[in-house]
Write a structure and sequence with these properties.
- Strand 13, helix 14 and strand 14 form a beta-alpha-beta unit.
- The chain is of the alpha/beta class.
- Helices cover about 45% and strands about 20% of the residues.
- It has 14 helices and 14 strands.
């Protein structure tokens, strides 16, 4: 994923390091002309749209139910309540998704997509709250006003202003007209208040004065999402940090310029993961309390050892190699992600940008004699020294005749282009599927160039380089 150093890459210090090592949360698979999809892939592709569709339908259902319930009290009132009801559902769903429910990953296509839907649910909730506040329901003639209802109305204004600030912090990573990024720590700290603001909004919809005899369906629907959202927030803040992570100790640390590889040994039950997945890593005893996501850069091993490759992209990742010592306890929460090796695809192009190599390291290590695919791995780096796993990958290539490795160092070899990529691949790239992990700009440039050449791959799979 791209949370922080996944797959040798890390998502970003803000979210962790996944394609850069979370750096990868999961892949998006875009279809391109060129053939029928295997049934399993087609099913997974359809499944990844189910979650976003259900979320949208839930918000829409809340808005329709709200508008229908209050339509007898006037058009403005009906629209205002519809927007308010939709915002409550959107906020509740956003909190549920923020809890990283593993059982829902298949419905969304991976944790990175879950976070994407979470983000847009927050933006939708804010827009609907503003609309609700603008189209203020006119119910004075139909309700008996109470002190509790007036208090709930005032709290609604407080929740609106608070959400405006939080959503802006989430949406805007960089301060406008400057090169200053909003620090991850500030973003993360302010996000902890989301549940409190939602509790205020939920109380507002519960306690606000309502007309006598109003149909109970709307209240039941909104209360269900309110309770579920608050429960998810409480779980995320106070239960998950103690329940989910597994204990590990640092077995080995190797520095490779700006990248660091750490090998961890489990102290209890071993982590079970599939090559390409990522996990959240923290080291409270080393002052690295905040968990960051990184791609697991190794295939599962019988001894349960786990390896991460992490690039120094921010304060957390820069401090990590100096803070850790052999035997240092660490906590690992995972696995997550859907950027997985697809054995049924006969021709594959793996394209990695920098630390985005991490998921492909795990994939390559997992290859067996039974794997007869034609695979071309192209690793774009700035200098040869950045290709810290080059010898490891060459050894794997020597054991697998169908596995071709190409390392392109832009400083000495020139920038990787679509034309060069097509020339390096030992088969027609238009007959293959492309798997990408790395900077978005590189991905777009390669796809645009291949399209112009009439060499678009059959399908394009990628993982978000950052979760934030």
């Amino acid at each position: 994923m791209t949370a922080s150093g996944r797959a040798g890459a890390t998502m970003t210090d803000a979210a962790a390091n996944s394609p850069e090592p979370r750096s990868h949360a999961h892949p998006s698979a875009r279809g391109t002309p060129g053939g029928m999809l295997p049934f399993g892939d087609a099913l997974a592709r359809v499944g990844s749209t189910v979650g976003p569709s259900l979320a949208a339908l839930a918000v829409l259902a809340g808005a329709i139910l709200g508008g229908w319930t209050y339509a007898p009290y006037g058009l403005q009132t009906g629209l205002g309540i519809a927007l308010g009801a939709g915002s409550i559902v959107a906020m509740g769903l956003a909190l549920i998704l923020a809890a990283r429910p593993r059982g829902l990953e298949g419905l969304f296509g991976g944790l990175d997509r879950i976070y994407g839907v979470h983000k847009w649910l927050g933006i939708t909730a804010l827009a609907m709250m503003i609309g609700h506040n603008t189209l203020e329901p006119e119910l004075e003639r139909f309700v008996r006003e109470s002190g509790l209802g007036d208090f709930a109305g005032d709290l609604g204004e407080l929740a609106l202003n608070g959400f405006i600030g939080l959503i802006l912090l989430s949406w805007i990573k960089r301060i406008p007209f400057t090169r200053l990024e909003i620090p991850w720590q500030i973003w993360r700290f302010t996000h902890r208040f989301t549940g409190l603001l939602f509790a205020i909004a939920a109380f507002h919809q519960l306690a606000i004065d309502k007309p006598a005899g109003i149909a109970p369906a709307l209240g039941l629907y909104l209360n269900a999402f309110s309770l579920a959202g608050l429960a998810a927030w409480l779980f995320t803040q106070f239960v998950a940090p103690f329940l989910r992570p597994q204990g590990f100790v640092l077995d080995q640390l190797q520095r490779h310029g700006s990248a660091t590889e750490i090998t961890l040994r489990p102290t209890g039950r071993a982590l079970r993961w599939r090559p390409g997945q990522f996990a959240f890593v923290s080291a409270p005893g080393a002052g690295l309390t905040e968990a960051h996501p990184f791609t697991i850069a190794s295939a599962p091993a019988p001894d349960g050892h786990v390896r991460f490759a992490i690039k120094a992209l921010g304060d957390w990742t820069r401090r990590l190699p100096d803070r850790l010592r052999p035997g240092q306890p660490l906590r690992v929460d995972g696995p997550y992600g859907r950027f997985l090796f697809r054995r049924r695809v006969p021709r594959q192009v793996w394209l990695a940008g920098g630390i985005g190599i991490t998921p492909f390291l795990a994939w390559a290590e997992a290859l067996t004699e039974a794997d007869r695919q034609q695979i071309a791995l192209v690793w774009a780096v700035t200098t040869p020294d950045e290709a810290f796993a080059a010898e490891r990958l060459r050894a794997i290539a020597a054991r697998h005749p169908g596995f071709d490795l190409h390392i392109v160092a832009s400083r000495s070899d020139g920038r990787l282009t679509a034309e060069r990529l097509a020339a390096l691949v030992p088969f027609d790239i238009a007959t293959a599927e492309l798997f990408f992990c790395g900077p978005t700009a590189l991905h777009r440039a390669i796809l645009t160039g291949l399209r112009a050449m009439g060499k678009s791959p059959r399908r394009d799979h990628c993982e978000a380089f950052e979760l934030r």
